[in-house]
């Protein structure tokens, strides 16, 4: 499922696409609920290896932030899935993430591996 968010303030930039993969483990569903300051993308439940994608226009002033609550096995974790100051130069207009038990790893365009990893927000 893909969601697109559009705002006139971001019209100078191409759309950015964020793709989230459930890599928690076989048989484990991942509930993903992403938001920004202005948008609530709703709850999406992903089976193992299933993905969820959304897109938006970045902010001219590098202030775009989307965060997600991710839940499995009764525990909720929080992660900034797109922080423009962190991600703009790393993934450009497409950011792909593998979510696993310790946090999330971004697809590195230079190595073609999910090797840029971050722990959960505390």
Give the secondary structure arrangement, pairings included.
Elements: E1 2-4, E2 15-22, E3 30-35, E4 40-46, E5 51-57, E6 65-72, E7 75-83, H1 84-91, E8 94-100, E9 103-108, E10 113-119
Parallel strand pairs: 1-5, 2-8
Antiparallel strand pairs: 2-5, 3-4, 3-6, 6-7, 8-9, 9-10
Explain the overall architecture:
Strand 6 (65-72) and strand 7 form a beta hairpin. The chain has 122 residues and is mainly beta. It has one helix spanning 84-91, and strands at residues 2-4, 15-22, 30-35, 40-46, 51-57, 65-72, 75-83, 94-100, 103-108, 113-119. The chain contains 1 helix and 10 strands; from the N terminus they run E-E-E-E-E-E-E-H-E-E-E. Its main location: secreted. It comes from Hibiscus sabdariffa.
Describe the structure concisely for a colleague.
The protein has 122 residues and is mainly beta. The protein is 7% helix and 56% strand. It is globular.
Structural class: mainly beta
Helix share, percent: under 10%
Per the principal axes of the C-alpha atoms, what is the gross shape?
globular
- State the separation between the terminal residues, measured CA to CA: 29 Å
Instruction: Give the neighbour order of strands across the main sheet.
Output: 1-5-2-8-9-10
Count of helical regions: 1
- Report Rg: 14 Å
- Oligomer kind: single chain
């Amino acid at each position: 499922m893909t969601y697109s968010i559009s705002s006139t303030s971001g019209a100078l930039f191409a759309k950015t696409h964020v793709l989230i993969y459930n890599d928690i483990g076989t048989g484990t569903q991942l509930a993903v609920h992403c938001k920004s300051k202005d948008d609530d993308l709703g709850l999406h439940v992903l089976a193992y290896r299933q993905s969820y994608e959304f897109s938006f226009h970045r902010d001219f002033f590098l202030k775009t932030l989307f965060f997600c609550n991710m839940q499995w096995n009764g525990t909720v974790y929080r992660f900034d899935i797109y922080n423009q100051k962190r991600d703009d130069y790393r993934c450009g207009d497409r950011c792909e993430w593998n979510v696993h038990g310790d946090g999330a790893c971004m697809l590195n365009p230079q190595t073609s591996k999910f090797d840029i990893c971050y722990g959960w927000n505390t």
